[in-house]
Amino acid sequence: MCSGGFAKCLGISLMPLSIICVLCNILLFFPGGKSVDSDHITLQVWYFGGILGSGVLMIFPALVFLGLKNNDCCGCCGNESCGRRFAMLSSILFAAVGVVGAGYSVIVSAVAINQGPQCVVNATTNQWEYPFLNGDYLSNKTAWDSCKEPPNVVSWHLSLFSVLLVMGLIQMALCAVQVVNGLLGALCGDCCGCCGGSDGAV
């Protein structure tokens, strides 16, 4: 498979991951599937790790990767091979943007998982707190009972942020692969050649 075709596969893989991350971040605004006051939404949700980091910032690299296979840039004085090499080299910059975006989402998700959700700890006074600040609830499921409301808020919080964490790591890996692929494409040329279907000139 040529470097442009491989980049397109990476772009196709990144698109659904970005959509999943955006949806997870949106769902986190409804802890336990319930609508609550904005002050009672876990702080890390407002950092938009899934919407901004693994979502918007990942769309740009994905679109660039998708377009590399059909790139017919004849850049350097009409030399198509040179134009394709420049396109592969520029894709490295977009891959770096993707790594930064996904890394941001991973960090936000890791902090959120360690801190735990904000929830009602006293149903009588409707007192909202973060009862799991040291992350001990991860290995002690009975501690989840400290959250009285919203229902199932701990599993909701943990599940969605875990998905964001895993998706972010996958996105980082795919973008890192494109960095290597882009370097190979820039140095060695596109093995599939161009316009006439012949092998690309070096």
Automatic annotation (TrEMBL):
Q: Where are its TM segments located?
A: 12-33, 45-66, 86-107, 154-177
Pfam families for this protein: L6_membrane
Q: Which residues form a coiled coil?
A: none
Q: Name one GO cellular component term.
A: membrane
| Bilayer disposition of the protein | Multi-pass membrane protein
Keywords, in A-Z order: Membrane, Transmembrane, Transmembrane helix
- Which processes are annotated in GO (biological process)? negative regulation of pancreatic A cell differentiation; negative regulation of type B pancreatic cell development; pancreatic epsilon cell differentiation
Enumerate the subcellular locations listed in this protein's record, separating them with semicolons. Membrane
User: From which domain of life does this come?
Assistant: Eukaryota
Q: InterPro entries annotated for this entry?
A: L6_membrane
Can you tell me which family this protein belongs to?
Answer: Belongs to the L6 tetraspanin family.
Q: What is this protein called?
A: Transmembrane 4 L six family member 4
What organism is recorded for this protein?
Answer: Acanthochromis polyacanthus (spiny chromis)
